[in-house]
Amino acid sequence: MNYFLKEKEEMVRDLFSDYVNKRIIPIRAELDEKDQFPADIFTEMGKQDFYRIVVPEAYGGLGDESMSAALGIEELSRGDGGIGVTFAVNAIATKGIILYGNEAQKKKYLPAVADGKIYTAFGLSEPGAGSDAGSIKTKAVKKGDKYILDGVKQFITNGAIAGVTLVIAVTDPEKGHRGQTAFIVEQGTPGFTVGKSEDKMGIRSSVTNQLIFDGCEVPQENILGSPGQGFYIALGLLDRSRIGIGAQAVGIARGAFDEAVKYSKEREQFGQLISSFQAIQFMLADMAAGIEAARLLVYQAARQVDSGEKEITVPGAMAKLFASDMAMQVTTDAVQVFGGYGYSKEYPVEKMMRDAKVTQIYEGTNQIQRVVIASKLLK
Ligand SMILES: Cc1cc2nc3c(=O)[nH]c(=O)nc-3n(C[C@H](O)[C@H](O)[C@H](O)COP(=O)(O)OP(=O)(O)OC[C@H]3O[C@@H](n4cnc5c(N)ncnc54)[C@H](O)[C@@H]3O)c2cc1C
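A: This is the predicted complex of the input protein with flavin-adenine dinucleotide.
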């Protein structure tokens, strides 16, 4: 299929794809089993300039187009969903600094991201506030030229490895979600500790942490955007990050589909290859069609962002919703094609099914995506 990619986009896709085949696919089962973040892989990706595709040229990057990022995330996720999401979250928190940061903040952090010296994270969710992000409790109280942060963030991807985390906190409780502010919090800031690491069903090569703020002093120059803008910054980033999760879902599904096709041409039952059974053929055909449909929604949403289109909420939500439901279906069907062996850890498809599940949950659950889409439709 021709996706009419630009030359640079094809280069990104091919570079990431080759790397995944050589370096990630051979180790993914071990990372999953050991619940291990592959620090060496991420260092290596930095040396190969992978992070430059999410940073503008003015700050040492190669441009920060959504399409290139989506292609990179898709390829990484074809190999391993955990590595895909680590890259995706690094990209989106970085995007927060690109879109809302002042010049000093951009100069301080973006070249470091481009060089692979720091990773970034985005801390919105809390133990008591997930879908209802307007109800977060982490507070930031002004004291002189500092803000004192107190509270707990939950399920933060890259939490333990991020050099900087964008943290949304309440600065004016009277104003509800209009009283939230975004802060750039550096690793090692006194009063900021990384809490427990989640023992997850899937994407086990990624790190997910609780973050604890206990009298954490953040200088006021670390406010991202302006006071009171935090909730809107979070929504603006979610509009974009959902495209990345859609890309992750497409990548995971492609990985499972490739395995299913291969296996169907090797496994024999009743004296013939299982690929000769129409039941298997139809399953593969439906999987392929679903992947293509999701891929086009993801690419189209990324193009909308790159073209400067203002309305990106619905395309991003549709891409994430459709792609993640598709990935759950495709990975489940891949397990079915493998029969009993699909249920065994000897083959990679059970891991892909576990990896796919979270794409229906984070960056807003799929119930919330439907709420978002419907509320725009009915406006
Ligand atoms: C592995 C992982 C990584 C994550 N990474 C990050 C991260 O980097 N940064 C971050 O800030 N967060 C992160 N999250 C948090 C994630 O975004 C939330 O888990 C998600 O938004 C859902 O919130 P919740 O878990 O509190 O579920 P809840 O909001 O408690 O939802 C429970 C159920 O109720 C449904 N529900 C809730 N409200 C409604 C409604 N109005 N209408 C219909 N149904 C509803 C939900 O769809 C869901 O089925 C991560 C989560 C996971 C699991």
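The beta strands are 119-123, 139-143, 146-157, 162-170, 180-186, 192-197, 208-219, 223-224, 268-269, 272-273. Residues 232-377 form a domain with the Butyryl-CoA Dehydrogenase, subunit A; domain 3 fold (CATH 1.20.140.10).
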